[in-house]
Design brief:
Elements (H helix, E strand, L loop, with lengths): L33 H11 L4 E2 L2 H6 L13 E4 L3 H14 L3 E4 L14 E4 L7 E4 L4 E4 L5 H8 L4 E2 L12 H7 L12 H4 E7 L5 E3 L5 H8 L1 H16 L1 H10 L12 H4 L3 H9 L8 E8 L1 E2 L3 E9 L2 H13 L4 E6 H6 L18 E9 L2 H16 L18 H12 L1 H7 L6 E8 L5 H14 L5 E5 L4 E8 L4 H22 L10 H4 L3 H20 L54 H13 L5 H16 L6 H5 L6 H12 L2 H12 L1 H18 L1 H14 L30 E4 L2 H5 L11 H11 L4 E2 L11 H6 L2 H18 L7 E3 L2 H10 L6 H8 L3 E3 H9 L9 E6 L3 H6 L2 H11 E5 L13 H4 L1 H7 L1 H8 L5 E4 L2 H11 L3 E3 H8 L3
Parallel strand pairs: 2-4, 3-4, 18-19, 18-20, 20-21, 22-23, 22-24, 24-25
Antiparallel strand pairs: 1-2, 5-6, 6-10, 7-11, 8-9, 8-10, 12-14, 13-14, 13-16, 15-17, 16-17
Helix pairs in contact: 7-8, 8-20, 12-17, 17-18, 21-22, 25-31, 29-41, 31-33, 34-36, 36-41
């Protein structure tokens, strides 16, 4: 073992704990049983089988209130892997569950035996027929698919609130619909074809003209069984009428029996049955959707009403006027939404009884938009909305920013409300539908039912379609509270079915919590047909047992997960998974959700248990070391949970007192450290990459990799010893060259001015000269220490840079322009918690600008562009996302090139200062998809705005990235 390896026990919770009833038992501490692991490795290969207890635990939770620990996790790479797993399961009498995004709200993504990850290797979008259709692989998120369709003016019909995270495979398997899909734009109605693997391993492509012939040859029993069921259903006119009536409103409870009415052949029937089957009939390996128009003329209002029934009563008026979306939010939802960025703070003061409708009209052109707005105004004139707080205006708007804020509040329903629940409680998300004309009545009954059972639930929903969601919080560790929940569910299901003839699941699919109530809604005859359909397609019961069909009346109470209290920054997490697509380590080790899930399992364990010990041993690398610390998870999380901050805190906890002292000493003597670093880089350039790679590689075997960076050939040479000469009297801004740009020079092959030289020249050329202070050496934004969790060093440098900036800017009278986006973020925001009270006051007077903002807003309007290249591809950094500066990079690139491309898969490169040298595998994984886009075609220039991110992208793509400011200097050079 390398020296200086941190002691895993330093992350053990410093308190005695009692074992939770749903803890992973000690016998599972070693992970997957040896024979199962070895057999699957023999079938698939070692890299596709995850068997550590930490692997099993991190896959045990999804967005639902349930938790089931799999026996093993398989990461399938292709259809052959899926078929091999199914064949193995048949031969060994085992069960298989497929999991993609894990955003399911009812436990569909959890299994108790073999769990197959079908997200990691299953992404891809191919736009067809000018956007009229699109081919999508199942691990692709809805947002990623829509991004590919947007240039064609098209969009997918299904639009779930979790579009940023949920994947197409799950959307189809659950028939998820969302805000506007209703019953006409969901997967069942817009899916042109799909390819799937049956439990037997047979692959069916429904678009293949010979599909029925081939299926009949491969699966004669299956084909005969499906056609017999079809004939039986069609012969029963009462049942046929009942099936049609059930799908007149949104309904995803049970199997799509209308597939037997809509499909004429076995393949056509299977095409319909696969939608909403929740992975119980097969694995969907590819989909082709018919798309719908993306109408870009949008008019939206958030209208407030005195009560939930009053708001619901207004819904038919707006749908009658042509509104595409009418979303309902109750007072609890609105008040909880204040945790969402840009939501007015005074919503916290809204009366509990208040409710709101989010009404949106979408039109293809100006004339149609005006017509919709006139119709909406007529409806609004007859209503009596209320304005309980100052921010409410009850008016329609076209402003994209305002509209975006409304939708962020609505889409954050589950996470915002869940994040505000009492610590230690479990969140239940229910989803039902009633005939839209009975929505107001259903709202009143729901409120009364909640009150009778002692719940104060939050309610929201797709009111235009009679579809409501509500959230309940209870303590799953308290048997009395579980019983209270069970009693409520029984009464709720009876109310929905017997009073309203509604759907117990409108769009979230049956799942574990409604499976026991399936017969209540459908009746014995239809339910038995569903059981027989399952037996025809999956006679051995290999796929996802107990997820749709379960004869146990208490099944919805099995596997409820406790939520032990963890670190405050992560405690509000409801494990929704919205953070995962943005995480740089998602395909390498763990995601933010999984880091929290693992921590919670540690808290379920008795202090010092074998399971806790095993989890701690894996957590150092899997969670702490391979977190880029970019905190983009906080941007994706509707309640802003910053798992990166938690990992930095854990890094601090692992440091010895000696390491903290050394880090503080480096901060105090940073001038010498900086000079030494520049000298080392200059010396390295003379030694050659091969020797340095060998030397650092050898050192990393002796000292743990998280302390010794690896040498990378892409690391640029040293910067010049002297910065450009500037003059203070004429300066309109102070220019702060970041230490990384004082140490490293331009990438190899890029001749001309350095970044500081380009910045000074551009500013002078625009008549906005800048001044570089003489004493910048030895100062830093403090990110070096902040990212590694060295608190004392962070405090030293944070206070030093603020004091220096205060003097340089004449007490904040001049802006401070910083030439690396991560350093801008560091000085503008991240240093604040580490400042003294006095320096916090000084910091409040500073104006800190990123060089992109300075160049785009102050310089570009005053410059003449004389030389443009043909094409540029840009890499927006994670710091730009935090600062909101991404469009500035695009604007500068557009000045320099005729064509500017922002890769659809652009994300954090995970180089994170030097983390890409400490763990090169992290950057390689984080940039893989973006690199495919970048290298698919040639570009004249590759631009970004952070030197180390540019190095990371150089390494990922083999293309030379440099600052957009250098490109702008060249483009405007006389």
């Amino acid at each position: 073992m390398p020296v200086r390896e941190p002691n895993p026990q330093t992350l053990r919770a410093g308190m005695k704990r009692r074992a939770a009833p749903d803890r992973v038992p000690d016998l599972q501490a070693r992970g997957t049983q040896k024979h199962l692991r070895e057999e699957l490795i023999a079938v698939l290969g070692p890299g596709k089988v995850l068997s550590k207890i930490s692997d099993l635990v991190r896959y045990a939770s999804d967005a639902s209130p349930y938790r089931f620990v799999p026996q093993v996790v398989v990461v399938a790479e292709d259809i052959d892997d899926v078929s091999a797993v199914l064949s193995y399961a048949h031969g060994k009498g085992r069960e298989v569950v497929f999991r993609a995004a894990g955003t399911s709200l009812n436990g569909q993504a959890q299994g108790e035996d073999i769990l197959v990850d079908v997200r990691r290797h299953w992404t891809g979008v191919e736009v067809l027929d000018g956007g009229a259709r699109v081919r999508i692989r199942p691990g692709t998120t809805v947002a990623r698919a829509n991004a590919a369709l947007a240039p064609y003016g098209r969009v997918l019909g299904p639009d779930p609130a979790s579009a940023l995270a949920c994947t197409i495979g799950g959307v189809v398997a659950n028939n998820a619909s969302g805000m506007t899909a209703g019953t006409t734009r969901n997967s069942y109605r817009t899916l042109a074809s799909l390819t799937f693997v049956l439990p037997s391993g047979t692959v069916v492509d429904t678009a293949d003209p010979a599909a029925d012939e081939e299926l009949a040859r491969a699966e004669p029993r299956l084909c005969a069984g499906l056609m017999a069921l079809k004939a039986e259903i069609e012969a029963d006119t009462e049942l046929t009428a009942r099936i049609r009536a059930k799908y007149a409103i949104k309904n995803t409870n049970g199997y799509r029996l209308d597939a037997f009415l809509d499909g004429a052949t076995p393949v056509q029937i299977l095409r319909g049955l696969m939608v909403g089957s929740e992975g119980t009939f097969g694995f969907i390996s590819e989909t082709v959707f018919d798309t719908v128009p993306l109408d870009r003329k949008v008019s939206t209002a958030l209208l407030f009403f005195p009560s939930l029934p009053a708001a619901a009563a207004a819904v038919p008026r707006f749908t009658g006027a042509g509104a595409l979306a009418v979303e309902l939010m109750d007072g609890n939802t609105l008040r909880a939404s204040v945790s969402v960025p840009e939501v007015p703070a005074d919503w916290a003061e809204l009366p509990k009884e208040t409710a709101a409708l989010l009404v949106e009209f979408r039109a293809p052109d100006e004339a149609a938009q005006r017509a919709y707005e006139e119709a909406a105004a007529g409806v609004l004139a007859d209503l009596e909305p209320v304005a309980p707080v100052a921010s409410v205006d009850n008016a329609f708007t076209r402003d994209p920013g305002t509209i975006g804020g409304y939708w962020r509040a609505r889409r954050a329903f589950v996470t915002a409300v869940g994040g505000s629940r009492p610590s230690g409680t479990t969140l239940i998300t229910e989803d039902f539908a009633v005939p839209p004309d009975r929505l107001a009545e259903a709202c009143a009954e729901l409120l009364d039912l909640q009150a009778r059972h002692g719940f104060d639930a939050a309610v929201a929903g797709h009111a235009a379609h009679g579809n409501l969601h509500f959230l309940l919080a209870f303590d799953a560790a308290d048997p009395a509270d579980v019983e209270r929940y069970a009693a409520f569910m029984g009464d709720f299901c009876k109310l929905t079915v017997e009073r309203f003839d509604g759907s117990l699941k409108a769009e979230h699919a049956t799942g574990r919590n409604i499976a026991p109530f399936l017969e209540l809604e459908w009746g014995a005859r239809a339910t038995e047909l569903m059981w027989r359909t399952k037996e025809v397609i999956d006679p051995d019961g290999v796929l996802a047992p107990r997820i749709v069909l379960d004869r146990d009346p208490q099944a919805h109470l099995r596997g409820l997960k406790t939520i032990p209290t963890v670190e405050a920054v992560a405690d509000p997490c409801i494990e929704c998974g919205f953070c995962e697509p943005t995480c740089p380590s998602q395909d390498l080790t763990t995601t933010p959700r999984q880091r929290i899930v693992l921590r919670r399992e540690m808290m379920r364990q008795a202090d010092g248990s074998p399971v806790e010990t095993a989890l701690l041993e894996a957590y150092g690398y899997d969670a702490v070391d391979t977190c880029a610390g970019d905190s983009t998870c906080a941007l994706a999380c509707p309640v802003g949970i910053d798992t990166g901050a938690m990992m930095k805190a854990f890094r601090h906890e692992r440091h010895s007192p000696r390491e903290e002292r050394v880090a503080a000493l480096a901060a105090k003597n940073f001038r010498a450290v900086e000079a030494s670093a520049r000298l080392a880089v200059a010396t390295a350039a003379r030694m050659g990459d091969g020797l340095l790679e060998s030397v650092t590689g050898l050192a990393r075997t002796a000292v743990r990799p998280d302390l010794m960076p690896a040498w990378l050939p892409e690391i640029p040479g040293a910067a010049g010893r002297r910065l450009p000469r500037t003059h203070r009297p004429a300066a309109v801004a102070v220019y702060y060259p970041a230490c990384v740009n004082r140490v490293f020079g331009n990438p190899e092959g890029l001749d001309g001015l350095s970044l500081p030289g380009a910045m000074v020249a551009l500013s002078a050329r625009a008549g906005r000269p800048v001044w570089i202070p003489d004493d910048v050496a030895g100062t830093c934004c403090a990110t070096i220490w902040h990212s590694k969790g060295y608190e004392r060093g962070n405090e030293v440098m944070a206070n030093r840079i603020v004091e220096a900036a205060w003097g340089w800017t004449a007490g904040g009278r001049l802006p401070l322009v910083v030439d690396a986006s991560s350093c801008t973020l560091g000085i503008a925001r991240e240093v604040v918690p580490y400042l003294t009270d006095e320096n916090r006051e000084l910091h409040a007077e500073l104006t800190v600008l990123d060089s992109l903002v300075w160049a785009a807003d102050e310089l570009l309007p005053r410059l003449d562009v004389r030389h443009r290249v043909g094409s540029a591809v840009v890499h927006p950094t994670c710091s730009m996302r935090h600062l909101g500066d991404e469009e500035k990079l695009t604007a500068l690139a557009a000045a320099c090139a005729e064509e500017v491309v922002v890769p659809v898969d652009a994300g954090c490169c995970a180089f994170a200062g030097d983390r890409g040298m400490l763990h090169p595998e992290l950057t390689a994984s984080a940039t893989a998809r973006e690199a495919v886009e970048v290298t698919a075609r040639p570009f004249d220039v590759h631009l970004s705005a952070n030197r180390m991110c540019e190095v990371g992208m150089d390494r990922a793509t083999g293309r030379a990235y440099h600052s957009a400011l250098i490109a702008l200097e060249r483009a405007t050079r006389p």
